[in-house]
Amino acid sequence: MSGNSIGRSFVLTSFGESHGPAIGGIVDGCPPGLPLSEADLQQDLDRRKPGQSRHTTQRRESDRVQILSGVFEGVTTGAPIGLLIQNEDQRSKDYAEIAAKFRPGHADYTYTMKYGRRDYRGGGRSSARETAIRVAAGGIAKRCLQTLAGVRVRGYLSRLGPIRTAAVGEPGFDWDQVERNPFFSPVAERVAEMEAYMDALRKSGDSIGAEVTVIAEGVPPGLGEPVFDRLDADIAHALMSINAVKGVEIGAGFDCVEQKGTEHRDAMTPEGFVGNNAGGVLGGISSGQPVVARLALKPTSSVRLPGRTVDLTGQATEVITKGRHDPCVGIRATPIAEAMLALVLADHLLRHRGQNADVRPPLSPLPASAP
Amino acid sequence: MSGNSIGRSFVLTSFGESHGPAIGGIVDGCPPGLPLSEADLQQDLDRRKPGQSRHTTQRRESDRVQILSGVFEGVTTGAPIGLLIQNEDQRSKDYAEIAAKFRPGHADYTYTMKYGRRDYRGGGRSSARETAIRVAAGGIAKRCLQTLAGVRVRGYLSRLGPIRTAAVGEPGFDWDQVERNPFFSPVAERVAEMEAYMDALRKSGDSIGAEVTVIAEGVPPGLGEPVFDRLDADIAHALMSINAVKGVEIGAGFDCVEQKGTEHRDAMTPEGFVGNNAGGVLGGISSGQPVVARLALKPTSSVRLPGRTVDLTGQATEVITKGRHDPCVGIRATPIAEAMLALVLADHLLRHRGQNADVRPPLSPLPASAP
Amino acid sequence: MSGNSIGRSFVLTSFGESHGPAIGGIVDGCPPGLPLSEADLQQDLDRRKPGQSRHTTQRRESDRVQILSGVFEGVTTGAPIGLLIQNEDQRSKDYAEIAAKFRPGHADYTYTMKYGRRDYRGGGRSSARETAIRVAAGGIAKRCLQTLAGVRVRGYLSRLGPIRTAAVGEPGFDWDQVERNPFFSPVAERVAEMEAYMDALRKSGDSIGAEVTVIAEGVPPGLGEPVFDRLDADIAHALMSINAVKGVEIGAGFDCVEQKGTEHRDAMTPEGFVGNNAGGVLGGISSGQPVVARLALKPTSSVRLPGRTVDLTGQATEVITKGRHDPCVGIRATPIAEAMLALVLADHLLRHRGQNADVRPPLSPLPASAP
Amino acid sequence: MSGNSIGRSFVLTSFGESHGPAIGGIVDGCPPGLPLSEADLQQDLDRRKPGQSRHTTQRRESDRVQILSGVFEGVTTGAPIGLLIQNEDQRSKDYAEIAAKFRPGHADYTYTMKYGRRDYRGGGRSSARETAIRVAAGGIAKRCLQTLAGVRVRGYLSRLGPIRTAAVGEPGFDWDQVERNPFFSPVAERVAEMEAYMDALRKSGDSIGAEVTVIAEGVPPGLGEPVFDRLDADIAHALMSINAVKGVEIGAGFDCVEQKGTEHRDAMTPEGFVGNNAGGVLGGISSGQPVVARLALKPTSSVRLPGRTVDLTGQATEVITKGRHDPCVGIRATPIAEAMLALVLADHLLRHRGQNADVRPPLSPLPASAP
């Protein structure tokens, strides 16, 4: 059943396969009156784009996004925004040989069991290619959050396999560094280490996991709809919906298991909260503190080293994934995670205050007649 | 906006405050033909019920659930199932003194900022009391899963603060032990240790976090609706929607950050998968492997030790939470987590195969006439 | 699959069968700060209540509604509102003999074919008994509309079989008359005629159809979400979801088929619209004109005269409906139609402006810390 | 808030303005394994296409639809289907002069009041241009209904202003005629009459309303989800969501107001139903009889004759609609109405039986390991 939409008031619906003619999406519910251009969205798309360094897949995509509707004279109209990105560099032949095999750790087997068939070219719908549209839509959500509520969403790579960078406020942490290296590392000192680690990893033909942290500052109190559509629950849903994610934390996350109540609860003073173990969410509703979430990304299963698997007939066989892949999908995940957090926050901002709260009609309503 | 429903095909909508006359819910989408009685649901409600041991809140609730509709002659009809549980032991006076203060780490502040007011009696809607209906509805979901697909959902306490029990297959792990102690510990040896820990904790007036693991066995391959309504994403949403949860993991969870691809990907053989780092989900779709999820529960902020906070006017003050509370909310969380996992699986089972796949009408359709 | 909820921002989910212990519902999304009591809802319930005159079913139900949650100290809190009405006067034996037969024109056959079984007592879920909860929830919607936007929803019986009353503004039309007769006729002169017609009809053992008109005044311009969730489309959905409704019109309705464009389009002047062929909706969005809708209700198929049908085995047989029924279900339909129109308008009002647009928190947000 | 999606299991989300670069949509939930090509959809698009005769707008659009995803090797995969239609013949200048005026009977005023601005080029989002995507998506729904359940959806023009054609079974009615004239008239004799009527109308510069009838044959019993998502209620919603529709009838429709119960209820015999006053729906669920619906379409307000209105500043003015318009929008409405009925039926078919009921995986599931 249809599972390609996310959000309730600010809704993204997406389509597209890795090796089809194009991928695209529709953002429905964006408030009117928002200045918006394709360039606004290109920025984040370029941050996600493959082939930016030797540490990511060498597939080349210009990832140029087109806005097909919902914007008139440079401003959103309240109508749905159609987004389109052409696929360019498709080497389908790379995948011919695995058409009849299930790559272990991939969606090949589950898609086939669910749908009875699959588009095997580059993973088809299950490819991370799909996340480009999330990033484009996330760009609209970011604009929306910034304009309507002054919310800022950003993220960084907190762990690359065994290499840990730093948390906000820790020594060496610098937001400005994040955009200055291909890893989104907030710690300059770690970059060389990561380069070396990745070079060795690539030689070995293996892959590695990573952890990304995303933070939203300026979130007003009151966002989130208990008891099920809590802000933290929807964030968990959105982040876990990203390819390769196996875990999500809010605030203290799993550390809270060993915390005492007196230690975990963030005291409140007229000067504000003391600490942020809550990660900006209490009872499923934003507290006004920064919203802090972490996600764990598994190592890609597409590696050059042979793996045991079965074929379409259930017979034992081996598979080696050629094609072009990220040895660490986490490296490009920061803009994607930011986009998902922005989509959830924009949705809840609009659920809370309404899409048209700021609309000023040009004239006062005409008088009504009798029925 | 309305956030009190969960699910798409098998939907729970709930209502009720901690100290109102009753709590209740509606399960809409339960397939017809399912044998169902109140006793079937009471079982899990009793497992969650407070006052079962000295380690949980002493509030006394019989938690008798009534089925008000949707069942005729002992069998579900396909009509919505109305559930009702009367509230009995309400000591509202316990809360009078905190009516004008925000308990730190609680939803008092966020509810007040969002709605402009709050039902301060026992946390009102934000009280864990609400989870009783989740457990009742989860019981229907479990029956549904068992009957339609042979799926079994169960869970255990994997960590109580610093005390770790064991994972399935590890030495000392025994499913039969889980129901034989007040902690849902699968390891008999740990129980005494936990008793001692909790007794000391209670004396100190503080509280502690915990980790629960839930597992679904017999899940057929094919459940989950990419790219957003993935099975793992919906599980993350459902588990994170439980009070006090700050983190969710599927399969290897955060351990995958330091795993290599060759180590993480579960090889496939005609005899089945080798390992289950995926936790039973690949590409957002069930693989047929057991679905394994873990959740981190924060320590309750309701402790006898004073905490700094502000009052309704924003002035600094102190608060001591009297009332009756669980020093470790995680202890009673196992049946709740099972219920949420069951609700998600039942929803996806019905999304995948349809609510009425098994319906056999008593007669063949009558011939149609011309328009 | 679950079909017992209506609305997106202001959502009613209902449950209950004609002869079960109780019927009930949950209103989720009602804004906080609204004064609300059971008495507020009882008013419309009493208008719909059976046995008010000899012209409706003699089933006796006090239809006392209980509010179980969402209201604290006489004011809504923003939490879901649980509604419950006990069933009292159930004569199940009346239905024993038709358990194995399908009443023609009823849902007996379709429910059985869909679900494989049915609760045959009084139509079970398909009974008009279910509409009592719609009326209770509609009462909340009316309060919401009145308080937030000054919208007034009311209706009247425009046709009873061959007897036509009058439209607003036509000679003899008087809103005050509507509540002064058992038919909700706005024309005093028609009442005696209707009494005579119904008495003769009852003697004959047959039933008759009717047409109800509902009107909402004070609807602000801007409600409705094109292109699918148009205000008129959602009104058509809500009114057609009422038992026995076979047709819905907005404004000029089917008369527009023979109208010219110059005749149909309502001219606009600084003094307001000239005419209301649009029925208050243009392009799926409210224009500020009164919203006018009409619905056609079929004659109940439950009549004392024998009808040809088949039994559970598909064999030909005859059926005579005993039990207690309305010879004209349209007579009691006015409060139900008002409720459905109010539910749609409240939903769209909140979709447009947000649930919490009026919320004033008691204190300004606490300052935020660093992440 | 987002209102550009329709359906629950088979969902169409659309975007696009009359004079933007393109219009498009996403069909999410189409079952896998369905043969599908662009040619399959082009057929209905050509039936709706403008400029087919002198009786419709002379705007020229090739309306070529592209399928961008969800189809692999000529067969649907279960992934969302992206649809795109380029806009070609845009004469925006036609609209410059009405940018500052509200055309009476149009959505100009309501869009402006709702969103604070509007894309005035050809009505922007409120233009009937949007219906082209409904027709394309409806083509997928038709294929789905035909393949999965043998359902056939078709329609005809039952009234053109004062000219009535005929109902199925009436003298002169012939399905084969429908596609042989530009009016979709099922009665050959009426065509000349209509030609003459339209020619005179065009000369006069005015427009006229129409009535369309749509019928679905072969609908299995059991479709529809009471009590709110009834099949007839969802049909009413879908048909009323079409531009210019002011009324919807199912079966006997408004005629039921004057019918007796013994007359309206369709008797049942082992040989089938006697009559179809129900229009194929009983209690909101399909009965297996043909589903019959009628819709009333208002005359377009875009006429060459001057109309009184106000401008953006609220001042009185006059407007004459130039541009190219259909003097009777009902003429091209038949394929659109068919599409909407097909979308609703496909959605309910999948809600009832599940999207993947027919899926046959190529291999049996691999054995599961321990958790």
TrEMBL record, chains A, B, C, D:
Top-level division of the source organism's lineage: Bacteria
Keyword Amino-acid biosynthesis: yes
GO biological process, one term: aromatic amino acid family biosynthetic process
Residues holding NADP(+): R48, R54
Region (Disordered): 23-63
GO molecular function (one): chorismate synthase activity
Signal sequence segment: none
Named cofactor requirement(s): FMNH2
Binding site for FMN: R125, S126, S127, N243, A244, G283, K298, P299, T300, S301, S302, R324
EC class (word): lyase
InterPro entries named among the record's database cross-references: Chorismate_synth, Chorismate_synth_AroC_sf, Chorismate_synthase_CS
Keyword set, alphabetical order: Amino-acid biosynthesis, Aromatic amino acid biosynthesis, FAD, Flavoprotein, FMN, Lyase, NADP
EC number, UniProt record: 4.2.3.5
Family of this protein: Belongs to the chorismate synthase family.
Classification via PANTHER family: CHORISMATE SYNTHASE
Role, per record: This reaction introduces a second double bond into the aromatic ring system.
Quaternary assembly: Homotetramer.
HAMAP family documented for this protein: Chorismate_synth
Protein name: Chorismate synthase
Organism the protein comes from: Thiohalocapsa marina
